[in-house]
Design a protein that fits this description.
CATH class: Alpha Beta
Number of strands: 5
Number of domains: 1
Shape: globular
Strand content: 5-15%
Number of helices: 6
Strand order of the largest sheet: 3-2-4-1-5
Radius of gyration: 16 Å
CATH topology: Rossmann fold
CATH architecture: 3-Layer(aba) Sandwich
Structural class: alpha/beta
Largest sheet: 5 strands, mixed
Oligomer: single chain
Length: about 180
């Protein structure tokens, strides 16, 4: 199956702060007007031609990007929980203040738990399993568009992605996900 992977467009980072949203609430911020414009322009990219379905992260910035593409391309959207960016709190109980050190630790450890020390954040092997479980559901399609996050994109292709940047991969059940990049 071909996957055209697209990172979401530009979100309103400041909006969640004004509303006092913390933790998961930060993921509710919509796209900026510029982000909507970027997504509308991306919808015309010929790389998307022939796609049968859009599979999107449930996070607002990705879902709004996917909706923009879907409206232009007249494609259905499947919301896929396995495409969330990262899970820094496997306990689901920590406050925003407690999450920041976990993010720093994840970065410093390059997504790998120190030997013989489990952490509260999702490691790269866990991400790989989550992504495989999510993407394998769509193997019956010839070509799909996946709209998600930079971190997920780095498990499929090395390097940082700009807003609405896209690339194409061949995906099958034996696909080798990438480690830290």
């Amino acid at each position: 199956m071909k996957i055209v992977y697209m990172r979401h467009s530009e979100p309103q980072r400041l909006e969640h702060g004004k509303l006092g949203l913390i933790g998961f609430g930060r993921d509710l911020a919509p796209l900026t007007p510029k982000g909507i414009d970027i997504a509308e322009k991306a919808a015309d990219n010929p790389m998307l031609d022939g796609a049968q379905l859009i599979v999107s992260s449930p996070i607002t910035r990705a879902l709004q990007t996917a909706g923009t593409i879907a409206a232009y391309r007249k494609l259905p959207i499947e919301v896929e929980l396995g495409l969330i960016e990262r899970r820094f709190d496997l306990t689901q109980k920590l406050s925003a203040c407690e999450l920041e050190p976990l993010f720093d630790e994840y970065i410093n450890e390059r997504g790998v738990w120190p030997k013989d020390k489990e952490r509260n954040w999702e490691n790269i092997d866990m991400q790989h399993k989550r992504l495989k479980d999510a993407l394998d559901k769509y193997l019956g399609y010839d070509k799909i568009i996946v709209v998600a996050h930079g971190e997920i994109g780095r498990r499929l292709r090395m390097g940082k992605l700009d807003f609405c940047e896209m690339f194409e991969i061949e995906y099958d059940s034996e696909f080798e996900f990438l480690g830290w990049s």
